[in-house]
Design a protein that fits this description.
single chain; alpha+beta; Beta-lactamase; 2 domains; 5-stranded antiparallel beta sheet; 3-stranded antiparallel beta sheet; 12 helices; 8 strands; binds glutamine
Length: 308
């Protein structure tokens, strides 16, 4: 990519700037296991479509990717069932919190988009209906698209979330009452909690998201993963819905399709150019990484590597 040397310099500079500023926000403590993570962890990984890679700080430390996994479940479900998927989940930003129940009543159990919790559960339901061993097959898919063999979910984080998951349990049962969950809610929730507790490093995240940035991407077996039109649509949903009720703000400040998780990770990409992942566990009020947002805003402003 043009100017990789310059990008490396900017990444280093901005890392130092952000690391010296006050680290605001709170770690996600509604999942007890996540509250144990050191809030000062901070890592960044950059990967161009030509495989130029640069990482800094805790870029090789694994963390709970949480909702970032929803891009991967959506991409697999989309690959399997195609456009029929949009009959069961919308593509509009919700403007509400990721775990809100309010719109589902008037929307008859059709979640506004696949990245809010309810929408992600419908996608999990689709995968359970199509995969033989849902969580294992899903992990194999992630290993295949990322070229990383060492990808697992954390049993303790999944259990921790399930034990305190009253709202998610309510969401899943509520959607089931409208008929938009076909399998048993317990089964869907089990898959959902395990999927959210997948652990990856920033380096692994950039490798995993490369298939959405590089139109020439192939897995080791020669698979294209998604066709161009499908990848375009996943990127569009990340752009409009990737940060819940802060999606407009992320678009405004950073200008990249991306996805956040309450583990403090953000994965973002510039189609045709690069992927970037940031991890810093303290979250702002909307549940997005405080430093992650700050870092990416400075990076795309300084390098002019935003899609706008
Ligand atoms: N597992 C989390 C939850 O359901 C995911 C939320 C997130 O990362 N925004 O609450």
């Amino acid at each position: 990519m043009e100017n990789f040397t310059n990008n490396k310099r900017v990444l280093q500079e901005i890392y130092q700037i952000v690391a010296l500023q006050e680290n605001e926000g709170d770690i996600a403590n509604y999942i007890p296991e996540l509250a144990k993570v050191n809030p000062e962890r901070f890592g960044v990984s950059f990967l161009s479509i030509n495989n130029e890679e640069f990482g800094i700080g805790d870029w090789q430390t694994k963390f709970s990717i949480q909702s970032i996994s929803k891009v991967l479940s959506l991409s697999l479900a989309y690959k399997i069932v195609g456009d029929k998927i949009w009959e069961r989940v919308g593509v509009e930003p919700s403007g509400s919190a990721f775990n809100s129940l309010v719109q589902l009543e008037t929307d008859n159990g059709i979640p506004r988009n696949p990245f809010i919790n309810g929408g992600a559960m419908v996608i999990c339901d689709v995968l359970i209906s199509h995969l033989k061993n849902p969580i294992n097959d899903f992990l194999d898919y992630v290993r295949e698209i990322s070229y990383c063999k060492d990808i697992y979910f954390s049993e303790s984080v999944a259990k921790s979330e399930a034990s305190a998951g009253y709202r998610n349990i309510a969401l899943c049962n509520f959607i089931k009452s409208f008929g938009n969950i076909k399998n048993q809610p317990n089964e869907v929730l089990d898959f959902y909690f395990k999927m959210c507790s997948i652990e990856m490093s920033c380096q692994e995240l950039t490798k995993t998201f490369l298939f959405l940035a590089n139109s020439k991407f192939r897995t080791a077996s020669g698979d294209i993963v998604l066709n161009l039109g499908q990848a375009k649509r996943i990127n569009a949903i990340m752009q409009t819905c990737g940060f819940y009720d802060e999606s407009g703000e992320f678009s405004f400040k950073v200008g990249l399709p991306g996805k956040s998780g309450v583990g403090g990770g953000i994965a973002a990409l510039y189609p045709g150019k690069y992927c970037i992942a940031v991890w810093s566990p303290k979250l702002n009020k909307k549940g997005n990484s405080y430093r992650g947002m700050k870092f990416l805003e400075l990076f795309t402003s300084e390098t002019q590597l935003s899609i706008f």
